Structure formats: C-alpha cells, structure tokens
Amino acid sequence: MFVVHIVASFFSKLQEDPTKKVDRFLYAMRLHDDQLSDISARFQAEMKKGLSAESNAAATLKMLPTHVRSTPDGSEKGEFLALDLGGSRFKVLQVKVGEAMGINKGGVEMVEKTYAVPKELHLGRGTELFDHVAESLKDFLHEKNISLEKKHPLAFTFSFPCEQSSLNQGLLLNWTKNFRAGGLQGKDVVQALRGAIDRIGGMDVEVLAMVNDTVATMMTCGFDDQQCEVGLIIGTGTNACYMEELRHIDLVEGDEGRMCVNTELGAFGDDGGLKDYITEFDRDLDAASNNPGKQILEKMVGGMYLGELVRLVVLKMAKLGLLFKGHVSNALRTKGTVTTEHVAAMEEYKNGLNNTRDLLTDLDLIPTFDDCVAVQHVSTIVSFRSSNLVSAGLAAILTRIKQNRNLRTLRITVGVDGTVYKMHPQYPNRLHKVVRRLLPECHVRFVLSDSGSSKGAALVSAVAQRLASRRRQVDGMLSLFRLSQEQLRLVKTRMRTGLEAGLKSKGSSAVKMLPSFVYRTPDGTEHGKYLALHLGETNFRASLVKFKGLQHNSRLYNKIYTIPLEMKQGSGEELFDYIAQCVGDFLDYMGMKKARLPAGFTFSFPCEHTAVDKGTLMSWNKGFKATDCEGHDVVSMLREAIRRRNEFDLDVAAVVNDTVATMMSCAYEDPRCEIGLIVGTGCNVCYMEELKNIEKNEQKTGERGEGTPEGEEEKDDGGREREGTEGHAGILKMCINTEWGGLGDDGSLDDIITPYDSEVDQNSLNPAKQRFEKLTSGMYLGEVVRQVLLDLTRRGLLFRGQVSEALKTPGIFRSNYLSQIESDRLALLQVRTILQQLGLGSSCNDSIIVKEVCGAVSRRAAQLCGAGMAAVVDKIRENRGLDHLNITVGVDGTLYKLHPHFPGILQETARELAPQCTVTFLPSEEGSGKGAALITAVARQKLKM
Q: CB of 522 within 8 A of CB of 931?
C-alpha cells in the first residue's frame, strides 16, 4: 500500500497546475492589499523624514528639492536647446514652445538627434563623459544649421540623484544605472557641463535649468493637463516626483507656494525598511550588483532588474527539479541572459507562451508546455510585484498631497514615462487598478509622456522664464507701494508741518487739529454710573459703565445696533431718531429708562468743538452722507431726537471722538497714555497738546463754554495765557483730535499716491478728501488691493488673464481679507479658498501674488501710520523740552488688532523715525464706550471741584 501511495502522489504532482506550483514557490512575492497599505504607510513616514532638516541625513527617501516652483500654464514661449543624459544613449534637441498656442494646442515643436554613450565613458573620467556630451551638442548645432553666434538657453535633463541649491545648480550625490564616471560625485554637474562646453568652444550656451527625468516627465504632461502634479518613471530605473508645499521642505528657505520634490524612491528600503518583503532572489540580485545595499526598491521594480529576477527564480526552480526535469543550461546560469524585454514578451496576451518557449529554447533548454506555463507565471508574479510596489509608493505620495491640501477627495493627474510602463502589455492596467483600489477617494488620471523628458526640461526653462518675467512685472507694480526711509522721513516732516499749521488760528490746514476740550486724563478716582453712546463706522453701541473710584476697576454692559445703509445716507433727522430709538431700547433692556444718567457721546467723525459737550460736524466720512448734519451741533441733534421720542431723558455731558475715547480708556490703565490711535475702518490720532500752542482755541465770545473748567477762561489776546493755569500743570494741556486722515488733501502726498489710490479716491463718496486715511484705513485697503488685482489680471499676470465679474465689483475685497490672507498660520490652500468664495479661481502662484499684493498695501499703510506717529511723539517731546520721551499710545481698531503684521511694522517705523522716544502701544480692551464714560466722569468731577 505504501508503494501505491507514493506512485499516486507522484502522478498527482505531475498533473498539478504549474501555476499553483509557482504560486507556492513565490508566495513571498505575492502581496495582498493589507501588505501594500503597510508599505505605503512606511513610505509616507520616510517621506516626512526626508523633508525634515533634522532627519534628512538618515532618510532613505532624500526628498530632493528641485527648485521647480510651477507646472506649465500654457502661456510659455521661447526656443531652447535640451540635453537628456540618463542611460546608454542621450538626446540633443531643439525645442520651440509656441506663443499663444496654449493648453491642448500642441504648442511645442522639437528637432532631435540621439547619440550613443560608449560604455567606456560610463566608467571613465567625468570630464571625458561631459566632453563627449558637449561635442555632440556642437555637432547637433552644425547639422541642424542652428546659429553658433546667437546665445541659446539650454535645459539639461540629468537622470541621476542630485542635490540642488538652485534651478541651474546640482551636486551629484551618487551614480546609478551602471554609471561610474570618476571625479563628479559631490560636484556641480551643471558646472561640469559648462566647463565642457567652454573646452569644446564655438558655442554660446546658457544653462538655465537642470532637472531629473521624472520632473521633466511631470512638466511634459503638465503642459497638456494642468492637474498633472506628479511625475513617475518606470523604466531602467524608477523614481517619482510631486509638488510639495514649500512650508514642509526644510531644506529650502521660504514657506509660500509649492516646489517639486524628487523623492528618489528607488532608495526606499536601503535602511532595511523592506526586509520583511525581500526574498532570497532579491538578496542574490543585490549581492551581485554594482551597488550592494543600495537602491533596494529599484532592484525590486526597475526594468534593469526584472529580467534578472526572473532568471534567478527559474534557475532555482530548475535546480530543485521543478522545471526542465532538473536540467540547467549554461545560458540559464549566465547573468543578464533574461531581460525585461523578455519579461514583457512572455506576458503578451496572445503570443506570450510562444515567446516564452522561444526564450527558453534560446537558453538551450527543452521546455514542456507546463514548463512554459510555469516560467510565464514566474514572469507575471515578478512584474506584478513590481507594479504593486510602485502602486504603494504612488499611493503614499497621493495621500500626502491630499492631506497637505486638506481635501476629502483628490483629483490629480500622474505623468508617466519609462520603458517598462510603455512596453509591458499588462503593467499600466495593473498599476492603475491597484492605485485606485488603495485610494478609492482619489480620482487619478494617468497620462503617458509623449515626448519624454527632453520636452519637459525645455518646459522647465520656459516656465522659469515665464515666472521670472511675471516676477519682474509684479515687482515693478508693487514697487509703487514700497516706501524708502527717505520717503517716510518726508511723510513725517509733512505730518509735523500739518500738525503745526492746524494749531494756528489763521490759515487752513489739511490736518484739522480740532480741540476736544478734554483737559486731563483719568486719575483713578472716577466713580458712578455713566451711559456711553458710540456712533461708529458700521454700528451704534450703547453701554452702561460703572466706575468704582480708587478700586480702579470698572464694569461695562453694552448692546450693539447695526446702522442700515438708508440711515447712513438718508436725512439727519432719521439718523438721530434711529439713534434715540436704540438708546431707548438699551435703557429698557437695562431697566433704567426712568433714570436720568450722565452720558458721553462718542462721535467718530470730524467735529469742531466749542466745549466738551458742543461739537459741530465738519464733514462726514466712512460712508456716511446723512443730510442736514454738516455744520450742525451733533449733541443738539441728539437731544432734539430724544425730546421727539419723549420716552426718557439723558444728561449728554460730553461729545468726543472715538480716538479721544480710546486714549482715555487706556489712560485709565496706564497714566503715561497721552495719545490715542485708531486704525480700523478709519484712521486717526489724538494727543495731549500744550494749551499755549493751541492758537485756534481762542474763544469767539467772552463766555466760558459749557464743560470748560473754571479758571481756564482766556484772559486776553496777549500771550494766549489763561487765568488760573499758573502753577496747575494738570490743566495746561488739552487733547487735540488731529483728524490726520486729511493729510494730503492739499497735494502734499501726491508723490507717493499710486494710480490705484487715485482710482479708489475718485470712486469714493468724498473724492480728494481724507487722502491719508484712504492710504491707511481698513475702509479703503481692500479696494486698493482689488484695483491692483484687476490691473494684474488685465495684464495677464493673474487668474490666467480672465477678469471675472466678481473682480469688477467695487467693495468685494473687504479689508478683513487682508488680515486673513496675511496670517502666518494660513496656508495658501486657504488663501485659494477665500479667493474662490469671491469667485476668483486661482492657482497656487496666483495665491502667492495675491498675498504679496495684500502685504505691500498693508505694509505701506502701517509704515505711513508709523511715520505719522513719529511726528506726533517728537512734537510732544520737543513741546516738553525733553532729550528722551517715554509715552504710551492707546490703540483701537480692527486693522491694528486683527492684522498679523500691521502693529509690528507700525511700531518699528515709529521707532526708527523717532529714536529719542520710547513708545509703548497699549491695545484698548473696552474701546470708546469706556472712554466716553471716563470723559463724562472727568468733566463732571471737574465741575464739582
């Protein structure tokens, strides 16, 4: 029975499906999806490691920056020479990128010639290799009748790992693909090429760019498909590149935009990261290679090695008696007798078995049908593993891109080149299916590079030229907003002149310098309940403020009411009736409608005061145009509206500007605060001026204005001295509301006003007025940015030259967008999201330019405010005869508070232009409401003294 069993077992094995026999033998090469996901996760971790400056040295994926910052947009143009060196042959080309031929119009023409690279040059001296390249280039120029007198830009595709510090510089890290030319490792290969061109002579060539073949493939495909942001080579070697966020690339300075990263994925596993997936055949192949322990993944997937892996497997199976009845020929024992071309031929759909039989016969073997089936299946498993491993690496890259951009789904194109991908009949479909299976949430399109890396290298140069040209034009336009120190000093001088002129009793001044009749700042003894009313740029706010005397604290309750546009631009009576209605609602809300509270009215518009509770509106701004208000006392208008309502009564004890209220609010916290600054929808400054300098404060009548402290009446015209001031330093000053937004209304800023500012001014509600404010305040900065973006787009420098209806819409680009766009924490993807919300579809490079425009406009605004502040603090210092001034500025306003860089630029400018002043900027926590209440409290206390 035992003998019968042995015979039965023998015949059953003879009849076994040969593919199952191979499956068992090569079980370790058959990778399932869980394993591929594991490999992909390892690959992602290694990518992150390679991008970090701290861990790059230890990373197998070097993630080399290429300094290619953009894919083509179809507008590229020019004529270029191209060299493509990466194997046993290299190409020289003339590439013409047509003007106005654009995407999908095939705007590239090429003439090329292929030259051999003798094997002795692979292993010889580097100078000899590059001399051969330069001689071939000169031969090409002669043969194609290309002028030797004209300067030719040249793009160089160099398909070996290089560390690039710029687009036209690259240090060779190591040779691959059996190249070992001496004297080049660690050297700049572009410089080596230039040296060879100089030695050969007779050519005027400028090397503009050096790129890897993978990058060139991405660029080639990107010319026809702008979603192509990944390049993949599966040929003799294997590699991938993709567009990485610049902020993640530690090896390159800057964080704006993207840069193509050459992963050099063939080295994945060099640290043992694939040891649990490596078979004995991989180890044998690596040991016999020219670079043992290097390029481990490439040796598992690259075309240079697939045929050899098949040979090693078939040899082992034959030795074990599993093939050819145990016969092993000398040819089968010989390295290199099975090539990747054989692998592709064996897997052809119809002729695969015949091709397999022919190969085995050529190897001096006598195969049976089952032997042919088995060997064909070996080839399938080896090539399938290759496509699986490439799929895992590609899935890692696509996952990173999706995560970088915070997308749920990713729609992207992968540009592919390489003989394995092109020639193997099954490889592309296998790759596509596995990638889509690993990443079902990604919509991946694969595009075969039609012209290889040569066209791509020329396109890299064309893109570099386009970006350089655009950069020059954008820089030229934005230079209008860049102020030199000399210009800022002139602005300071003009502001100082305006301040002095505005204080005089005669003559007009663009800087109005309005007396506020606020004679002192709080001292902390203020107590009681006060109502604070604030009419601002966009809303009306009613507040109840309680002060607790020497406890030096306060409590504030408030309610905000939106001011409808029809109220802003209707009649004055309607506007003040609406304000009275809001006050009544607030008192009702607080349960205090029957109480007659002292109230302070913050009125954020230019007023000429004759007392602390009398202010005549000089002119509207900030979008207000209510009729029958200008030239009228706003307190009287408010009192009349309250009387008409006949629901409550108020003691309106003070009317103040919001800037003055801000100063008072901050002075309650810091006694050194004697300046108020508002940088929000509007822009203004107030400060404590010496009474003796305020000539325009001379009373028109001999009566003391209501609210003016006793002892401060003017005595007579002589010397401007006032009774009761001698020996009382606390009443020798008055807060002046500068209304500095009017600086430039007399033409004094014409030399720094740009055409974009002029356009904004002409389209405003008050042309030729508030020129300084229109350069510095939140109400206008967004519109200035829109005008610049509109001009850039019309010039074809933004948004593909397409002017959208949104971009034509005045006011659509609000100033708060500047704060958001310039946030250091805001990635460019989110900038693009903001632009898309405005109907402005943008590329990554568009987003960078928009951010630069916002930065230029807001920086100028901050610098101008800083120059103005320098004029104010220097004046105060000189007023007091001090060598050095220590002073605090109370600040409020959304632009100052919310913009990430505005405060720092303003403070730096003020410090540089007023070096003898130490200025502390204190943000107002409770703003004008608390300030108005404090002014009322101070005025009431003074009257009771």
A: no
In a 10 Å sphere around its CB, with 0-12 CB exposed, 13-18 middle and 19+ buried, how is residue 68 labelled?
buried
User: In terms of C-beta density within 10 A (0-12 exposed, 13-18 middle, 19 or more buried), how is residue 808 classed?
Assistant: exposed
Q: Is 658 a catalytic residue?
A: yes
Please state, in angstroms and as integers, the Cα–Cα distance from residue 600 to each residue in 245, 404, 656, 871, following that order.
Answer: 53, 52, 7, 30
Identify the CA nearest to 705 among candidates 520, 517, 521: 517
Q: What is the pLDDT of residues 239-250, one digit of tens each?
A: 999 999 988 998
From 633, 658, 761, 846, active-site residue: 658
Distance CA 35, CA 492 (A): 69
In the three-class reduction of DSSP (H, G, I as helix; E, B as strand; rest coil), residue 498 is classed as: helix
Contact 193/156 with Cβ under 8 angstroms? yes
Phi/psi for 520 (5° steps) reads -155, 160
For 844-874, give one letter per residue: b (16+ CB within 10 A) or e.
bbbbbbbbbbbbbbbbbbbbbbbbbbbbbbb
**Cα→Cα distances 268→18, 190, 290, Å:** 33, 27, 17
Active-site option among 311, 466, 520, 541: 541
Rg (CA), the chain: 39
Residue 714 DSSP one-character state: B
* CA 408/CA 389 separation, integer angstroms: 24
Q: Residue with structure tokens 């292993």? A: 123
Question: Does 541 participate in catalysis according to the annotation?
Answer: yes
Global pTM? 0.73
User: For residue range 870-900, what is the model confidence (pLDDT) as tens digits?
Assistant: 999 999 999 999 999 999 999 999 999 999 9
- What are the φ/ψ torsions at residue 848 (nearest 5 degrees)? -60, -45
| Active-site residue identified among 136, 554, 604, 847 | 604
User: In sequence order, which ranges of 727-840 are alpha helices (DSSP H)?
Assistant: 755-762, 771-776, 778-794, 815-821, 828-837
